Amino acid sequence: MAKKIIEGLWDCPYCGQKGIGGLTKSCPNCAHPQDAGTKFYLGEKKEYLEEDKAKDYGKGADWTCAFCGSLNRHGNTNCANCGAQREDSSGDYFENRRKEQAAQAKPQPQPQPKKKRKIAPLIIGILAILAIIFFVTRPKDKATTVIDKTWQRAIDVEALTPVREQSWSTPPQDARNVSSRRAIRTYEQVLDHYEEEAYEVPYDVLDGYDTYTEYEDNGDGTFTEVEREEPRYRTEYRTEYRTVPVYRDEPVYDTLYEYDIDRWVHSRTERSGGSCYEPRSEQVRAGEWSVEAEPYWPDTRLGGNEREGGRSEEYILYFTDAKGKSYSAEVSEDLWNRYSRDKSVELEVQGSRVLAIDGVRIS
Ligand SMILES: [Zn+2]
Ligand SMILES: [Zn+2]
Fold first, then answer.
1. CA of 20 to the centre of ligand 1 (A)
2. pLDDT tier at 19 (50, 70, 90 boundaries)?
3. In this structure, which ligand is nearest to the CA of 64?
């Protein structure tokens, strides 16, 4: 590893002279000596010291005279500027640099309140939008009157119907035309054999060295040039083998039954419905509904192989306010029965949705 000494440069803080040789301890222009504020740097052109001169440098940093503040050679026992003894001074070039860095890192007032001022209008804007949304969509009370009531009822009818079914278990007692056969019910993974399987294992191989040059500040007006090498690696792969099990799918047979059996199957839905005061709905116009005030269940006229399935019902009240805006709400049969045409009703609404009728919450 080659090691070369290069003379650094410094700037005189007193007269402003730039690029003075690091080994020139006083400014050639104003005679101001190197002091605590002196910082060595490398010039564009690297001036290497002759070998016999170079051996005297890079041995230790310059020391700072505690009395006059000037920098002195590492080996000097007295200050070249004022003659003070070295043993009465403790600081050196590197300590000056550390102090300089600490002073730069310290106070720096943080300019942060600016951000807050930018966020404030944004928050106010969001709150304003939320307030508008709340104002528009908040529940409101509306004085209305009942204009109509409708009702709908339905009964599902199921018929006992013969169906063809398949089953892996023994057919029920009432099954007819039973047949059975062997069939594949599922597949099972069975170990067939073992196989050698190749796989790649990565490893690093030294590919060569990257060299680069670094310059270390010796703190005595010189720099040491150091050639550094860094190993560079590349990834290679080697093939290795492992034994892995290989499976095959083995069919599992079972007895599959097939038979006819009677099951309850949905066959039809019977409906009834009515609009109490106005032929307002499509159903009335289409003749499906009559104008009937009293709800009734439709006649199912069950046949010998039929039964009732589920029942369903729906009761709707219609309202209008002074401005002619209409509302409707599905309610329980009990609530529906309490209202008749032209009755005054206090609604709580949110948009066009009815939340409560005369204080009674509806879901
Ligand atoms: Zn000067
Ligand atoms: Zn001195």
1. 9
2. very high
3. 2
What is the 39 CA–ligand 1 centroid distance (Å)? 14
How confident is the model over 167-207, as pLDDT tens digits? 999 999 999 999 999 999 999 999 999 999 999 999 999 99
Q: 297: how many CB neighbours lie within 10 A of its CB?
A: 13
Question: H or E element: which one contains 160?
Answer: strand 140-167
Residue 154 has pLDDT above 50, yes or no: yes
Record the tokens describing residue 166, joined without a space: 């398949």
Distance 5 CA to ligand 2 centre (A): 27
Cα separation, 335 vs 356, in Å, equals 11
* Cβ(26)–Cβ(17) below 8 Å: no
Q: Is residue 41's pLDDT more than 60? A: yes
Ligand 1 center to 33 CA (angstroms): 8
Give residue 113's pLDDT: 58
Cα of 39 vs centre of ligand 2, distance in Å, is 18
- Rounded to the nearest angstrom, the distance between the alpha carbon of 72 and the centre of ligand 1 is 17
> How far does the centroid of ligand 1 lie from the alpha carbon of residue 4, in Å?
29
Please compute, for residue 183, the number of CA atoms within 13 A of its CA located in the half-sphere on the CB side.
Answer: 12
Domain layout of the chain by residue ranges:
144-158+268-361, 161-209+230-260
Paired residues of 133 in beta bridges: none
In angstroms, the CA 156 to CA 162 distance is 19
Determine the distance separating the centroid of ligand 1 and the alpha carbon of 319, expressed in angstroms.
98
**What whole-number distance in Å separates Cα of residue 278 and Cα of residue 146?**
12
Of 168, 223, 166, 177, nearest in space to 22 by CA: 223
Quick one: pLDDT band at residue 51, thresholds 50, 70, 90?
confident
pLDDT over threshold 90, residue 288: no
Ligand nearest to the CA of 81: 2
pLDDT at 277: 77
